[in-house]
């Protein structure tokens, strides 16, 4: 039976959710998945850090209060975040990187991933920044050091779109995709269809935890743009950078636009898409589109995400599921670990 020693980098909702899964299901995984998880270190810029090579109590970690320097409350813990020490010297086989997304340069998450991969330590991450901005470099670094680099949760949280298209649809010839890849913007458009103004819908999304205090990245399409880059590069072998993707959001859509669309049997959706052109190039965009209600993405409501793949052999294949959520995104980390166990298992 395999035991993976894992260090958690960032201890916000996602990695705290993962620790909850470990606490609740580790014994079950031994039988159903053929491995167990031992958490040997945690580091967080706000909470501090802790290393315990013999393993940390996952339940105790989950119960830790969200207070500055809180890890100092645990035996061996420290109020400072010794990120490099936890990543390189905790004895971890892999790290679960789930810090905040920096859409400008991907830091500090990219450096955290580099430290691990340079040391031959596997990386699973839900962070869009390192993949969209430095994906090719990090994948090459992983190959050169015999480490795995998995990032299923970077696009649609726990809904496995990358692995689905890359593995289950291998040979179907994915030629492009279009998707609702941001739950906040889709929730806002759904509530506007119910009669709310844009500002009121955003405020409600913030109250429910879907939107950040500054919702710009969600409603102006910047979050979706990162995801489009990831999917296009991964599935279409494109070499897109963020600047290659034309981007506009939903803030200019008025209640009158929503009402007119409904009267005409259509719905406004923020769509991220990429398609291979006849000359082999890949064109990608993020924009609000008016979709007829017969379109497979038109009926996706609330914070749900969905993507429709255009394939040569199967036609359109559409998958929908949660695009956010603490446990849902934590599941993506688990699915990445399962993939690593399959390919690199002890």
From TrEMBL:
Q: Which residues form a coiled coil?
A: none
Pfam families assigned to the protein according to its UniProt record, in alphabetical order: Homoserine_dh
Give the matching PROSITE patterns: HOMOSER_DHGENASE (PS01042)
- Enumerate the UniProt keywords alphabetically: NADP, Oxidoreductase
Q: Which residues bind L-homoserine?
A: 212
Keyword Manganese listed? The answer is no
User: Homoserine dehydrogenase catalytic domain: from which residue to which, for each copy?
Assistant: 160-338
Q: What class of enzyme is it?
A: oxidoreductase
Instruction: Give GO MF terms, alphabetically.
Output: homoserine dehydrogenase activity
Query: Which Gene3D superfamilies does its entry note?
Result: Dihydrodipicolinate Reductase, domain 2, NAD(P)-binding Rossmann-like Domain
Active site per the UniProt annotation: 227 (proton donor)
Q: Which residues cross the membrane?
A: none
- EC annotation? 1.1.1.3
Residues bound to NADPH: 128
Q: Which GO terms describe its biological process?
A: threonine biosynthetic process
Does the record's keyword annotation contain Oxidoreductase? yes
- List the PANTHER family: HOMOSERINE DEHYDROGENASE (PTHR43331:SF1)
Q: Which family does it belong to?
A: Belongs to the homoserine dehydrogenase family.
**Record's protein name:** homoserine dehydrogenase
Q: What is the lineage of its organism?
A: Bacteria, Pseudomonadati, Pseudomonadota, Gammaproteobacteria, Pseudomonadales
């Amino acid at each position: 039976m395999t035991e993976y020693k894992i260090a958690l980098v960032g201890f916000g909702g996602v990695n705290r959710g993962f620790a909850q899964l470990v606490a609740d299901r580790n014994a079950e995984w031994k039988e159903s998945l053929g491995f167990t998880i031992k958490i040997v270190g945690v580091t967080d810029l706000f909470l501090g850090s802790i290393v315990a090579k013999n393993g940390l109590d996952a339940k105790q970690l989950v119960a830790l209060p969200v207070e500055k320097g809180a890890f100092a409350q645990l035996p061996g813990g420290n109020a400072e975040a010794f990120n490099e020490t936890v990543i390189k010297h905790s004895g971890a086989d892999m790290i679960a990187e789930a810090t905040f997304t920096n859409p400008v340069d991907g830091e500090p998450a990219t450096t955290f991933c580099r430290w691990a991969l340079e040391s031959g330590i596997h990386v699973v991450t839900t962070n869009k920044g390192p993949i969209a901005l430095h994906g090719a470099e990090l994948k090459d670094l992983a190959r050169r050091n015999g480490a795995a680099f998995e990032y299923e949760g970077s696009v649609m949280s726990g809904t496995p779109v990358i692995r689905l298209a890359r593995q289950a649809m291998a040979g179907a010839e994915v030629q492009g995709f279009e998707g609702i890849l941001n739950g906040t913007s889709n929730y806002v458009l759904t509530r506007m269809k119910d009669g709310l103004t844009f500002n009121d819908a955003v405020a409600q999304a913030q109250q429910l935890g879907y939107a950040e205090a500054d919702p710009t990245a969600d409603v102006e399409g910047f979050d979706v743009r990162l995801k489009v880059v990831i999917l296009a590069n991964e599935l279409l072998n494109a070499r897109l950078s963020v600047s290659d993707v034309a981007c506009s959001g939903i803030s200019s859509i008025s209640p009158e636009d929503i009402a007119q669309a409904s009267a005409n049997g259509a719905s406004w959706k923020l769509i991220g898409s990429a398609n291979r052109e006849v000359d082999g190039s890949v064109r990608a965009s993020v924009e609000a589109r008016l979709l007829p209600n017969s379109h497979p993405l038109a009926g996706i409501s609330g914070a749900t995400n969905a993507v429709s793949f255009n394939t040569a052999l199967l036609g359109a294949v559409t998958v929908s599921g949660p695009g956010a959520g603490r446990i849902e995104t934590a599941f993506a980390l688990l699915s990445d670990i399962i993939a690593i166990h399959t390919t690199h298992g002890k």
